[in-house]
Amino acid sequence: MHSQATSQSENPASRLVAGAALFLLMLVSVCLLSLRSKGRESEPHHCTSHGCGHIGCAILEPGSDPALHAALESAHALSRNPGGERFYTTNRWNFAPIGEGSEISYSFVPDGTFVPRMFPSDPSNGDTSVLFQRMDELFGDGDVMTDDTGLWKPLFRQAFDTWERATGNTFVEVPDDGESYPAAAGGAGRGDIRISMREIDGVAGLLAYNNFPATGGDLLLDADENWANPFNDFLRLRNIVTHELGHAIGVLHICPAGGDWLMEPFLNLNFDGPQSEDIRGAQSMYGDRFEPNDTPAEPASLITPNPNVSDPQLQLNTAQTYEDLGTLFSSDNDYFEIGVPPGGTISCTITPTGETFSQAPQLETGFCGIPTQTSSLIVHDLAFEILPSGGGAPLITVNDAGIAGPESLTDFVLEDGGLYLIRVFVNSTLRGTENEVQLYDMQVLLSDGGIDGDLSGDGCVNALDIAELLSFWGTADLAADLDGNGDVGALDLAIVLGSWGEGCD
Questions:
Q1: Domain co-membership, 175 together with 277
Q2: DSSP labels for 450-502?
């Protein structure tokens, strides 16, 4: 496709058309997504920018206007943010400081609202939104008197939920007053992100496009598409919308297009939702779902309900794993509140996560450049401490594993009981960048200090505990790893057998 676009641009007439299209491209900030017909799962996703100000992204199916294709390719040039991040981001919603999430509202535009031509290559000159009519038609029973929004709105909600779990953002649906575009985002009568639908270019061309935060973050879907494809719980709809909402919060593309990340220049239906590098990009702007928890005065509680996260409350004698947490700055601290009875214990493991993969810039052609190897596992060397509630001198510091290794503490006794803090911090920054995310998982087990080997928690060491141990055999589960060596195996079985019958009288 590159050679085709180049040959087109060598023709003077084509260059003139391409130049005119490029001029128009510089007026807006949008991102478009399309998919090939006949069930193809991926298609080139072009981005355009001008200097350091990102303008937009486009995906075109084969057979699109060559002049437009050449204009999009010649206009494309992505610039990396300062600091050398291994992901691309543009402007963000700035309701909160960088590294912290915001409450971002969204609304579904009522039918009859005029949606103008929102992108220079948009074949439509604008039309009224038919979102409710079309989606009810696709998902409902055909009865115009029936409210069928409960059949399709939850699929959009799932797309918002994936970014909500990946970041510190929360997304709230609000009514939309039907104000014609362009209308101020987040006005009294509408959401920050407005979702509408009208005809764009017919079936299988441009499926959707999305503005970036600086230009409203609005999402437009093509009414001619079949959004009700039920494959894998409507994965096609959800991944397209989730990808576009990534642009709506300021995440750009990841290269090369190896089929690993949601935000690559190619749509991929082989996974569901954001992957690790997509999450790192979003967290570089908004932090993880427990933010803000940067001070001992404002910890994220693991033992009381938290309306901003879906993680269950931490229970005594039950290990809980928290995935896709992240540190951003070299001075970043993540504080978590826990509680145990007198004589209780804590076991905790902090495991840095990441991958070694190829990284490349997205070129002016719209395709990915020559890749180089990088690793998201060695951004920060992490450590952690157990502190009294409210802060103060650490009771213990765990910093033994070195780069990329899991830091682990087993059965540390908290004699007085009560509330304590886990502080996860950056021991050293490995890549020399200030604004890059190190993802990690945290597993925590709080124990009431009961009998060694009583894995079932019934107060008696018996066959139930053997069965519980065998169910975790070969894993690193904190609850079953009784000797704390990082592996559930024969040594742990020996502890259970050594306590056999205790508490059973």
A1: yes
A2: --TT-TT-SSS-SHHHHHHHHHTTTS--TTT-TT-SSS-SHHHHHHHHHTTTT
Q: 146 is written with which tokens?
A: 């029936």
A 10 A CB-CB count for 170 gives 17
CA distance 89 to 426: 23
Residues 350 and 368 grouped into a single domain: yes
Let me know if residue 58 belongs to a domain: yes
Of 148, 119, 154, residue with least CA distance to 135: 148
DSSP 302-315: SSS--TT--PPPP-
Count of positions (residues) in the chain: 505
CATH of residue 492's domain is 1.10.1330.10
Q: Is residue 293 part of a domain?
A: no
Domain that holds residue 149: 2-286
Would you say residue 295 lies in a domain? no
Using a 10 angstrom Cβ sphere, with 0-12 exposed, 13-18 middle and 19 or more buried, the burial of residue 29 is buried
Q: What is the CATH number of the domain that holds 404?
A: 2.60.120.380
Cβ contacts of 266 within 8 Å, gap of 6 or more? 42, 43, 44, 45, 257, 259
Q: What is the pLDDT of residues 450-499, one digit of tens each?
A: 788 888 878 899 999 899 999 999 998 877 888 777 789 999 899 899 98
Task: Identify whether residues 107 and 160 lie together within a single domain.
Answer: yes
Question: CA-to-CA distance for 429 and 205, rounded, in angstroms?
Answer: 45
Q: What distances in angstroms separate CA 225 from CA 88, 202, 292, 311, 384, one per listed residue?
A: 29, 7, 40, 36, 50
Host H or E run for residue 351 = strand 344-352
How many separate domains does the chain show? 3
DSSP result, 364-404: TTSSB---EEEESSSSEEEEEEEEETT--S-SEEE--S-TT
Amino acid identity of residue 386, one-letter, is: I
**CB neighbour list of residue 145: distance below 8 Å, 6 or more residues apart:** none
User: In this structure, is residue 146 part of a structural domain?
Assistant: yes
State the SS3 of 207-274: EEEEECHHHCCCEEEECCCCCCCCHHHHHHHHHHHHHHHHHHCCECCCCCCCCCCCCCCECCCCCCCC
CATH code of the domain containing 246 = 3.40.390.10
pLDDT in tens, 265-323: 777 889 999 999 999 999 999 999 999 999 999 999 999 887 778 898 899 889 999 99
